[in-house]
Amino acid sequence: MGFLSSIFNTILYKPLFNLLILFYKYLPGNDFGIAIIALTVLIKVLLYPLGTRAIRSQKVLSELQPKIKEIQEKYKDNKEKQVQIMMELYKKEKINPFSGFLPILIQLPILFALYRVFWKGLRPEELSSVLYGSIFHIDAINSSFLGLIDLSQAVRGADQKLIIPNLILIIIVGISQFIQMKMIAPKTQKTKAKSGGAGQFSDMMQKQMTYFFPIFTIFILWKLPAALALYWLVTTLFSIIQQYFVFKKKSVKTISP
Question: Measured between alpha carbons, how far is 125 from 109 in angstroms, rounded to an integer?
């Protein structure tokens, strides 16, 4: 575990921490929230190609759910044939059903590293022991974002009192997550529901996921520092914009001769 922890610190925690301090120290205003936004945008830009492929796959898979359910029902007693037909469907649509998981697998270690950055990084001992050199050196960090949100606090502070700005932030995160899920969901659900039980079941599951994920996101962020909520919000907003351009480009290709 010590070896893995050392690799994690060297490859992710320390570079992300130092980048965050670099943005905080040299961006105008010395605002910790602005530094988090800059770091998040940089991460999303670096992962943009992977994110684009994942968005396309998620959208196509979402639209194919009724067909997938029909195949599963039709060949429920012949698993080998079921897998063969589904793989042919994926090949025809030119998608990899597992491609959507790759960006998630990459982002999870980044999320854990950022959690440690936001949870431990504000401590004076971290500022003195983790920073690379004089260009990154800083004595203290003001964790305020625009003078409104203390990014080092969760929705409830150390005194267990509700911090309204932090609560509003995670609610906005939940709303943005809902918008992102709605964009991925098929727009022709009512039509597909006519195809029978498989289509109706698919629509029901899609609706449940659309509403479940935003609530689950709020639940996760409730006890975490607001810095992670801000990172999550910027990530989601970036993904919404990315989805918009990916879907727009796809629709243009579809209607073009």
Answer: 23
Residue type, 72: Q
Using the Cα atoms of residue 179, residue 184, residue 190 and residue 194 in order, give the sign of their dihedral: negative
Nearest to 95 by CA among 62, 139, 48: 62
Which of these, 118, 138, 119, lies nearest to 128 by C-alpha position?
A: 138
H or E, element range at 48:
helix 48-74
Residue 12's CB is within 10 A of a number of other CB atoms, namely: 17
Q: Are strands 149-150 and 144-145 parallel, antiparallel or unpaired?
A: antiparallel
Interval 9-64: pLDDT, tens:
888 888 888 888 889 988 988 899 999 999 999 999 988 887 887 777 777 777 77
d(CA 79, CA 75): 7
Flag whether the pTM goes above 0.85: no
Q: Distance between CA 231 and CA 176 in Å, rounded?
A: 13
For residue 60, which of 100, 89, 87, 95 has the smallest C-alpha distance? 95
